[in-house]
Structures are given as C-alpha cells and as structure tokens.
Amino acid sequence: MLDLMNQSQSICTSFDKQSEKEKSESRHHLSASISVARFLLRLGLPFRGHDESQSSTNRGIFLELLRWYGDIDRDVGSIILENTPTNEMMCFPNIQKDIVDACAKETIKAIIEDLDGDFFGILVDESKDISHEEQMTLVLRYVNKEGKFIERFVGIVHVSNKSAMSLKKAIYSFLSNHSLSPTQIRGQGYDGASNMQGELNGVKTLILNDCPSSYWIHCFAHQLQLCDDLAVTNILNIVGASFKHRDLLRGHQAKKLEEFLKSGELHTRRGLNQECGLQRPDDTR
C-alpha cells in the first residue's frame, strides 16, 4: 500500500526515476551507435546494406556491427535494435547521417585546433559527382606544434559555377566558416585548368592579389598523372600499330611470367596471370 504522505513514493518521484532510467538507456544506446559509426568512418567502410530487413542475413556493416556490439556487451544488447521501441532505435539512415555529420564537425574542429592559428597551404580540385553536380574539395597542409608536416582533407563544397571568382568565394567562405583567414594562406596547389592557374583571372592570381605570400605550384600528383597518360598513350600507339611489336611484347611478358613463377613471386591458380590488354587513360586537364 502506497503511503501518499511519503514524498519518495509520490507519482512525480516515480516519473522522475523512470525518466532518469530512460535517459541513461538512451545515452548508452547513442554511445553504442556513435562507437560503431566512428569505427566505420576510421576505416572508410560503407554503412548501409542492400537488404536491411530483419529477415536478411546481411543487413549492412553498421547494423551487423551494432548487433555484434550488443552480443559482447549484454547491457548494451538489452537496449538496442529489436529490444528498444521503434521510434528510439537510433539506427535509421537519417540518424546515421546525423552521427556522421557530428563526427565530421568534431574532426574539423580538432584539425583547426591542431593548426593553432598558424599559416597553411591549400590544395583545391573540383569535379562532378555521380549525380553530375559540381563539387570542390579542399585540403589543408601545415606544420603542427611538434614540427611535423600534416595534410588533412577538410571538406567538399558544392559549387554551381566553375568560374575563378565563384571558386575563390567558395574557398573564402569555407575558411571563414571555420575561423580561418585567407591572409594565413602561404601556399596554393591546383591542377592545370585555366580557371585555376590562369595568369590574369585564375583562382591562384585572385588569391595572390589578396595575399602576395600565397605561392602557387602546379600539383605534382596531377603532373605525374599527365606524364603517365602521355607515356601509356605512346606505348599503345607504338605497340598497337605493329603486329611484330605485339608479338615481341607478349613474348617478353610470357618470359617474365615464367621467371616469376619459378622464383615463387607469383602463384598459379585459375583466373590468375591472365593476359590483359592495356586501356587508354581517361581524359584529364
């Protein structure tokens, strides 16, 4: 029998206790989802599965790893997935995206703190994604407090216009949103596109006008890609134009393959060491 004069047995106290219990379970549940998401983000693994229904044998890495987490920790297992109300499962795609966005913000915050207001260089490139929307990627390069050279990818920005002025504004806007000033730029690295390296109206010239110390270099990775494309194209032209050259190349390839098999550097198995034709490189700027 309840003692209505006893404050510890009142309805309000019972509700408060239940509320604290629910809050604690929600925190543990959210913590488990965040831990799984951080693991997948660190390894660059996909979250979703093709079939995430309860009858599926593979519901995707996120849900399967969350279930495994619950199997090894019974306290967590009792409050996740099917053991929690549908509206509190914290594993639906929109919740996963919110967790990823939060992790991205914390990661960029840590990078900015590591930069500690010092000078930095920028690497910028733009290309179309699978939906044909133009996107610009931004990378920061700097020397941290320990004197180590650091290169960090910090974001992707949607750009509706590929003009030099629009790209410059997008770069400045991104830096401003993260409390960075263009006057701190000491280096620029772009590909060979005219809107990026143009001497009169390119992005590098516009930024140099604002910050004369932001020296520009043509991205070495892009230069290497151009050299590779040219070399492969020349090889294809030489080999493809002559049956004699093709036979010589195949004979040399077969001889090398035989040597590797004898030395144990290569192994024989069905589908291995098959002769493949060279493909022409994709167009690049």
TrEMBL record:
Query: Which top-level group of life is the source organism from?
Result: Eukaryota
InterPro entries noted in UniProt:
DUF4371, RNaseH-like_sf
A Pfam family that this protein carries is DUF4371
Q: Which SUPFAM superfamilies match?
A: Ribonuclease H-like (SSF53098)
Q: Tell me the protein's name.
A: Zinc finger MYM-type protein 1-like
Q: Which organism is it from?
A: Nicotiana tabacum (Common tobacco)
